[in-house]
Amino acid sequence: MDTHPGDTGRRDPARWSTERRSHVVLRLLRGADITAVAHEVEVPVDQLEDWQRAFLEGGKAGLQAQIRLSGDRTLHRPRAAVTAPANEVIANDGGHERFMLRAIALARRTALEDRAGGPFAAVVVRDGAIVGEGTNRVIAEQDPTWHGEVAAIRDACRRCGTHDLSGCELYTTGEPCPLCYGAAWWARIRCIYYAASMEDARRFGDFDDSLIYEQLQLPAADRRLPVIQLLPAAMRPVWEAYHRLPGRQRY
């Protein structure tokens, strides 16, 4: 049986502490079989799914909020996602791990369930709360730029009402390709955390971003996809006018 110090009413999950419920959820998110865990801890599968959903959205605060919304302590309902307040820093509930596990859950859904693209997803975090999420939907949208990190950055910018994500962290399921690293750079992301390496993506999915990085080290005209300058003089007046533009917003 799963045990946790300080708990009473082991057979009554309604009396479990938030700490113990978090402990069980983290086991599930690390790959434990939900049916086996349900049998071991004597909690219904649908209840464990509710706990997992609430934890992914809001950590321990999400679990606590779900109790309040359900109107009792059974935690069988509701199934609606619960998000912690944006200004609340979630501590001691998985931290970095929780945010990465959320991204991994999104990657699993987009690749294996929706089959919308590769297993790539990302979340943007500010002050301990998720402010943006995105998944790879290259196939579904027929858009080669629909990468998880780019989608997450766009979502965060919409939610936050700014193109400047200074102070935010990006949690992504894969080591960023040049497109996504560039997007994070221009968004002023503070730090990027990734799960799978470029080698993992190459080995299991035939995605080889290392070739792009290698090509970028070559002179522009010598790359496999050559970059050739054309009509620079015709474009220069546009740049000069832009340079003189009153009240030009810098980014």
Q: Tell me the major beta sheet.
A: 4 strands, mixed
Number of strands: 4
**End-to-end distance:** 55 Å
Radius of gyration of CA atoms, rounded to a whole number: 22 Å
Low-confidence segments: 5-9, 71-92
| Average predicted local confidence, pLDDT | 83
Task: Please write the string of helix (H) and strand (E) elements.
Answer: HHHHEEHHEHEHHH
Multimerization state: single chain
Structural class: alpha+beta
* Count of discrete alpha- or pi-helical segments spanning 4 or more residues: 10
Shape: elongated
Q: Kindly estimate the percentage of residues that lie in beta strands according to DSSP.
A: 5-15%
> Which strand order spans the largest sheet, edge to edge or round the barrel?
2-1-3-4
Fraction of residues in H or I helices: 40-55%
